[in-house]
């Protein structure tokens, strides 16, 4: 049958089979997807509407109650995927989800999905795809690069997801969706699901009953390898004079944090964490000695770790950032490296098919108690001093700010640290029991923290989120603060304004690291846009590179109240925080700290110079 150019094919040409009349109206693909997401704990789906996903969003929203999800509309797709990342983190590496439109939405979200991949987070990226009848039609669609090939987006996602499902017919949709979500959980990596725009609202018999709960076959250690690995590791560590334990970021994906603490309790070794593992090990542990980060470690931590004659690293990632430009003073022959499914002792032997949590649990029963390294630590340890209180009228300093941040922390709070100087200042914070901590060290995408704060707060209703964000990073994703207001979040955002990309300055300075200064409190007022009541009061005058602080307290209720105050000293900061933690504890608080461009941590200066040296190595001779 001939079809005219630009015409719609007749019904007989359609690739999509007619739905079964026996399927109830709620047995649709979209509602099945909603039920599956709810089942795995992704009760909030971060969305940006587009013409290819509108019907899908209708169906996701139609599934209500205990089996349904809630749509959280975001300002753009990048932020939606960052929010899914933060949501997954708040749930201890559980599932987060975002839903966007075809290609223009997917390729906008892909940067955040890549970050989730690097951090081992099971983010489900759902894309509304082309009409099922358009596949194989040789047609050109909008939201594409102008070729009759719909696989561009799919091919891009193949390198940053562990599974890709293209759902363009109902017969295998059930299987594809279930396989994608279960693979995300099993691999703890993002997955991509594309759903043709004409399918979500069509009933089908495969969706007519509540889905059978997911059951993932548990991963098991090879018992012979496990026993051999434990025996070899125990012999290695028991002959050491001053061994230490260091936790790494892959403990989360291995679900091995409790086993690591169990091992620490049993062996008596001092316990440190790599910077990207901060928050995975309780810092109130009696033998916790801080963050091991080479030359920028917690005081006295590197001395103990690097002088040890044996060290066990659980789930480490040694990249140029975590190794401070590959400058760690560690020796491979002294190390036991425990990865999620592999144990390597010194230069060998290596034991595969050994799960980290099984190995740590078994090793705890085989080690002799040895507190020598911790006793050495106690001999050299000097308690850190607190910054002196500012004189009356003295401009505020960053170390004074973080002294007050430390005082704010409790088990009901969580810290989100953005890429930049906040990495180093937040590493110094002592986390109370139950206090969360997140930052994105492996991928290091500036702007991540704004969307991640939104997502984390949606999942962790029992915590108040404290986000520390630089001005350069904030300008990338600032608009998602409006979504926080919309959803009534009471986050505290410290906007640290030093007029540019400070972390880049320390690696390689140039005029491109200076950015346009914004009126950040005016921006919050623009997000408010006169809805409800708005009271503002501004006192004093701020100039960039002089110290000052601006506080915006935003109450979200039936009426929206914004109170903008300008404070320039520690005393004024105390008053602002007293309000934020007292009468305005249910408000979103936006705190702008304008600091001198040179008011940076000494750790950042040292780290930046070493990373710069690593980046500047000349090519190897041919």
From TrEMBL:
Binding-site list for Mg(2+): 471, 498, 500
Enzyme class per UniProt: lyase
Coiled coil region boundaries: none
Name of the protein in its database record: pyruvate decarboxylase
Family per record: Belongs to the TPP enzyme family.
Domain Thiamine pyrophosphate enzyme N-terminal TPP-binding, chain residue ranges per copy: 28-142
Low complexity composition-biased segments: 7-27
TM annotation in the entry: 544-565
Region (Disordered), start-end ranges: 1-28
Domain of life: Eukaryota
The organism of origin for this protein: Urochloa decumbens
Catalytic activity, reaction form: a 2-oxocarboxylate + H(+) = an aldehyde + CO2
GO molecular-function terms, A-Z: metal ion binding; pyruvate decarboxylase activity
Domain Thiamine pyrophosphate enzyme TPP-binding residue range list: 441-593
Needed cofactors: thiamine diphosphate; a metal cation; Mg(2+)
Keywords of this entry: Decarboxylase, Lyase, Magnesium, Membrane, Metal-binding, Thiamine pyrophosphate, Transmembrane, Transmembrane helix
Gene3D superfamilies, alphabetized: 3.40.50.970, TPP-binding domain
Quaternary data: Homotetramer.
